[in-house]
């Protein structure tokens, strides 16, 4: 599937999925989500809009209490470490997805606003 850059997309609502892909992992109560822009020119917009507060709010209903973002500019990506979101982790949670693998798609559902310059 070919993904267009933000500049090539028409007006309308965008989600993070339109601009990036993600991969999730876990350790206990900690979820790790890596996010990478499909196109390098979209990276700055992702840095601007996919912030620690927005990600914490997105996962608040799951009990997230701490979010740290690590930028990976040479890879046009970022890594989020989210604490408290797995409700006990693999062995302690009654969730269908104790590993949190599907939570990367929750992040990709985040709305992205187009800037006035696009």
UniProtKB/TrEMBL annotation:
Residues 15-112 form the AtuA-like ferredoxin-fold domain. This is AtuA-like ferredoxin-fold domain-containing protein.
